[in-house]
Amino acid sequence: MIDFNKPAFVGRELDYVKKAIDNGKLCGDGEYTRRCSLWMQQHFDVNHVLLTTSCTHALEMAAYLSDIQPGEEVIMPSYTFVSTADAFVLRGAKIVFVDIRPDTLNMDEKRIEAAITPKTRVIVPVHYAGVACDMDGIMGIAGKYGLKVVEDAAQGVNASYKGKALGTIGDFGCYSFHETKNYTMGEGGALVFQNNDYLERAEILREKGTDRSKFFRGQVDKYRWMNYGSSYLPSELNAAYLYGQLEASEQIMKKRMEIYEYYHKNLRHLKEEGKIEQPFVPEHCSHNAHMYYLKVRDLKTRDSLITYLKEQGIQSVFHYVPLHSSPAGLRFGRFSGEDIYTTKESERLLRLPMYYNLDMENVKRIVDAVNAFPGF
Length: 376
Known about the structure:
Helices cover 39% and strands 14% of the residues. Helix 1 packs antiparallel against helix 9 and helix 3 packs parallel to helix 4. It folds into two domains: 235 residues, Aspartate Aminotransferase, domain 2, CATH 3.40.640.10; 123 residues, Aspartate Aminotransferase, domain 1, CATH 3.90.1150.10. It is built from 15 helices and 13 strands. By secondary structure, it is α/β, with parallel strands linked by helices. A hairpin with a 2-residue loop joins strand 6 and strand 7.
């Protein structure tokens, strides 16, 4: 069976994990946490990087730092993972879902303004498949109405919009280093932001509500409980594994792009024959080959293709069930306007295997199997 996903492994990770053990500090904010943070600061041109235990926790931190109050509203797409909404629901917010664009599957920036009410506080663009939302349009709307922007860039690490790294354009950006992502630490994430004014509150929040970060920098002689907080620091073992991946980021990106381009080139004839739609990347976006998906005619065709590929020894998957149709989505949110594309596109989409250690012979086998599918 060709697996849908396997976590990336380049060979350096175990050396760094061993060094972390030898250093005798396994809790957070050690040498490898600092190395990862500095790497991202330099490569993504962002002022502050706080490594977290997950992208979920990065989103929770962003929601807190955005000063969300109970009853206030947050605008986001319904076609996203539950954490995008959960982080704000935990603060008592009402989620307002808007439709997606059929080309990128990102939130339709043209539908945001109609969803704004006096209670709106935050817009949350989700960069689906590592392809940027229209950040100029979104930032323009946010500026017009005095709203904060929290970028869910879980899939967007090392992708960009008009030369700017995803996650660094809004007020906050949230990254994922889950095992399904391009670069992994098993479970993990990061909160990134440019504004220095957020740093002290963010550090206190991340360090269980204490000024422990200042204590370790020698800025205070003892640390104290300062405010609300939680334990959002990942272990040094996780950070050490991630650093091995970040050091090899170009190597990992090159292989993923090779797989992506092979799929794109060798399945293009199916698009030209009207049997599938392929991913679309706007000219001003630089994607990161996070995933490769096909959109087929309808739900029945999608399910038949998944079954067919499984019979050929290939694991493929669909993606999100739109949040607004779920029990929690109905309870904590509402859909603004008409659901023209969200449900329709979600039911047509199928993801093909995509990971660093996927052999190109198996990529060819996957393409041959898709091309031979009798149900198109």
